[in-house]
């Protein structure tokens, strides 16, 4: 690096970012190092997209707040209702803190004996079960309707 | 007073019931009973905005001597319903390994028309020709249901005018753009007699005579004159009217809607249980572990123990801030 032709260094001097012409080579090394860091950050952000729930700070075992990325009233309200139906849950509520951020927060407080995370998981599984039942009922009703139609036709 | 919080004294303990009152190729009308309004609304919202379909997303115009601007035509093409049969096997373009688009994540359609006669010529969806390999013979084909068999009109050409273009249809959901909406409309109604007083009906002299009764009014008991208001009553019967835009069959929209909710839940459960498997939950975590003054908000408290990667920014990296919510004007497309 130190063996660079003088002319190149002078050209670099014109660049407004260089405040210390004496240690130019060092700053260049630093810049390169920063570049590497930035690349790492980019990769991390890509990975982060896959994480859709996180625990918000200040949460304890039985009283926790969760942040859901890319969720809204569709999941929030149904989840709130179904978690609140769990007799081990003392309190559950959801909020969308800002309408232009695709985030949804859920607060769960449970009685002793279970944790907020267990309550959340149970809530999710309960809605899944409900979905299964409604699918079955709908399919059965559709088949029934088709049969009746065929009989009358 | 005996109060047992476990007592399931409401109708919900009976389990949900579905009744279909009308079903054909365009719409399905059904009633959902013994479910909560929150779930009923989730189903409505998901059918409206989150079912994947296919729509034209990219248009390459080779020549356009019509009176309409390129972007105007491109917009019209985007709104043409395309058959979404088998769209679940199509990848989202953003998840595909290809550079921009390929047969795994898109369907190509071409349009080439020239008016050679002496009268103006109509160019309609029928003239869009799918080309190249497809998942199946129907995916991406324009939906044509009118009796002339032409489909929606795209533009008109005067003698000697020509239009030549290539379209790339991609998979997407209506949350991002309404052109991906599978349903033309979703009717959603409960409590036709307004017994719960969720509605405040406008009237000149008498709301009862001025407002026409809902078609579901005869399905439910009318209110008795002088009956006291029931403060414990909750809506329990929900009437849906799912009308398809033609890309999916109406009962398919309902089935897909539930499937989308299921996938959403499955993804979240997977994420929660996976975190436990790694010992993330039992291991160091908030708040005890991260209660120091240098706690980074949104940085370190994630559930799965891989939260070190988090930054407070870019949480919604995959979405546009404008497309993320459907709370406003959710029924705005027509």
From TrEMBL, chain A:
Species for this entry: Triangularia setosa
Protein name per its UniProtKB record: DNA-directed RNA polymerases I and III subunit RPAC2
Compartments in which it is found: Nucleus
Keyword annotations from UniProtKB, A to Z: DNA-directed RNA polymerase, Nucleus, Transcription
Skewed-composition ranges (Acidic residues): 28-49
Subcellular location, principal: nucleus
Alphabetical list of Gene3D superfamilies matching this protein: RNA polymerase, RBP11-like subunit
Similarity remark: Belongs to the archaeal Rpo11/eukaryotic RPB11/RPC19 RNA polymerase subunit family.
Domain DNA-directed RNA polymerase RBP11-like dimerisation: from-to ranges: 64-136
Source organism superkingdom: Eukaryota
GO process annotations (BP): transcription by RNA polymerase III; transcription elongation by RNA polymerase I
InterPro entries noted in UniProt: RBP11-like, RBP11-like_dimer, RNA_pol_Rpb11_13-16kDa_CS, RNAP_AC19, Rpo11-like
Pfam family, one: RNA_pol_L_2
A single GO cellular-component term on record: RNA polymerase I complex
Lineage: Eukaryota, Fungi, Dikarya, Ascomycota, Pezizomycotina
UniProt-annotated stretches for the region Disordered: 1-59
From TrEMBL, chain B:
Pfam families, alphabetized: RNA_pol_A_bac (PF01000), RNA_pol_L (PF01193)
Residue stretches making up the DNA-directed RNA polymerase RpoA/D/Rpb3-type domain: 27-271
Keyword set, alphabetical order: DNA-directed RNA polymerase, Nucleus, Transcription
Gene Ontology cellular component annotations, sorted alphabetically: RNA polymerase II, core complex
Any one GO MF annotation of this record: protein dimerization activity
Stored SUPFAM superfamilies: Insert subdomain of RNA polymerase alpha subunit, RBP11-like subunits of RNA polymerase
Origin: domain of life: Eukaryota
Predominant localisation class: nucleus
Family of this protein: Belongs to the archaeal Rpo3/eukaryotic RPB3 RNA polymerase subunit family.
Name of protein: DNA-directed RNA polymerase II subunit RPB3
Taxonomic source organism: Triangularia setosa
């Amino acid at each position: 690096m130190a063996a660079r032709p003088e002319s190149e260094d002078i050209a670099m001097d014109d660049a407004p970012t260089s405040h210390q012409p004496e240690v130019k080579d060092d700053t260049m090394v630093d810049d390169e190092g920063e570049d590497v860091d930035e690349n790492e950050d980019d990769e991390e952000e890509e990975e982060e997209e896959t994480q859709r729930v996180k625990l918000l700070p200040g949460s304890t075992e039985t009283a926790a707040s969760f942040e859901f990325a890319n969720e809204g009233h569709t999941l929030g309200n149904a989840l709130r209702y179904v978690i609140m139906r769990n007799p081990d849950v003392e309190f559950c509520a959801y909020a969308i803190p800002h309408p232009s951020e695709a985030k949804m927060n859920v607060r769960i407080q449970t009685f002793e004996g279970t944790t907020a995370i267990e309550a959340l998981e149970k809530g999710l599984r309960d809605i899944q079960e409900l979905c299964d039942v409604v699918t079955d009922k709908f399919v059965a009703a559709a088949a029934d309707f088709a049969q009746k139609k065929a009989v009358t036709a | 007073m005996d109060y047992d919080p476990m007592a399931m004294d409401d109708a919900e303990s009976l389990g949900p019931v579905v009744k279909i009152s009308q079903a054909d190729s365009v719409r399905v009308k059904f009633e959902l009973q013994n479910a909560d309004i929150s779930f009923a609304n989730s189903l409505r919202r998901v059918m409206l905005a989150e079912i994947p379909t296919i729509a034209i997303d990219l248009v390459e115009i080779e020549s356009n001597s019509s009176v309409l601007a390129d972007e105007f035509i491109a917009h019209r093409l985007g709104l043409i319903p395309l058959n979404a049969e088998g769209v679940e096997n199509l990848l989202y373009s953003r998840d595909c390994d290809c550079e921009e688009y390929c047969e795994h994540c898109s369907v190509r359609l071409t349009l080439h028309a020239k008016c050679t006669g002496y009268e103006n010529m109509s160019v309609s969806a029928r003239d869009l020709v799918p080309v190249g390999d497809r998942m199946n013979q129907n995916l991406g084909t324009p939906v044509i249901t009118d009796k002339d068999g032409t489909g929606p009109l795209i533009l008109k050409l005067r003698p000697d005018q020509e239009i030549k273009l290539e379209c790339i249809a991609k998979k997407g959901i209506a949350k991002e753009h309404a052109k991906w909406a599978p349903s033309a409309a979703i009717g959603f109604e409960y409590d036709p007699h307004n017994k719960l007083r969720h509605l405040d009906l406008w009237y000149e002299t008498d709301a009862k005579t001025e407002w026409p009764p809902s078609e579901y009014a005869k399905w439910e008991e009318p209110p008795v004159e002088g009956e006291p208001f029931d403060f414990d009553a909750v809506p329990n019967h929900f009437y849906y009217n799912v009308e398809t835009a033609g890309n999916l069959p109406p009962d398919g929209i309902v089935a897909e809607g539930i499937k989308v909710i299921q996938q959403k839940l499955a993804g979240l459960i997977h994420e929660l249980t996976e975190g436990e498997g790694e010992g993330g939950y039992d291991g160091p975590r908030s708040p005890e572990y991260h209660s120091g003054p240098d706690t980074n908000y949104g940085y370190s408290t994630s559930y799965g123990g891989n939260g070190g990667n988090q930054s407070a920014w870019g949480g919604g990296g995959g979405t546009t801030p404008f497309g993320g919510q459907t709370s406003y004007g959710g029924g705005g497309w027509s």
